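Service request form, structural biology core

Requester: graduate student, group of Dr. S.
Request type: structure prediction, single chain
Budget code: on file
Notes: please return the result as structure tokens.

Sequence provided:
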Amino acid sequence: MAREMRVVDYDASWPDRFDEESTALQDALGEVLVRVHHIGSTSVPGLAAKPVIDVCLEVRDLEALDACDDSMRSLGYVPRGELGIPGRRYYPKGGEDRTHHVHAYASGDPLVAKHLALRDYLRAHPEAAQAYAEIKREASAKHRTDPNGYLAHKDAFVRRTIELAMAWRARCKATGSEVNLL
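Core staff response, request fulfilled:
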């Protein structure tokens, strides 16, 4: 059975599901963990998404995290290494019916800032979130059982929005404006 790229309306339980998972990850990883962030579409109120909670971990050291693979397995995660993104550790949970994705980076990695900027930008710009929802629904309809096609369909929009988000975040920091809205 192929994994289904099903996009659904926003579910108000997603932040609670993140909170529960965050607590479990903190308990399992202890001192290795610096911060846990809710990222991805489920972290943006009102945004349609695949019902998979994306989690970004900032860790002290990737090798120390690698030593915790058994702890991650005990929570139901499958360690997949970098999986094409240098400096990341990726852990899906739920098999073909995914429930969570963990993306872990050493604290200070620029990819963490990109994830957070995109999240915060979409939270602050409902028109961009709506446009993203439309693209995701279109991607889901065209690539229902093709994860790579689904991602490729969204790629140009996501890349451009990350550029906008990083510029927006820099302007917010320069002016002392609040960036993290939730």
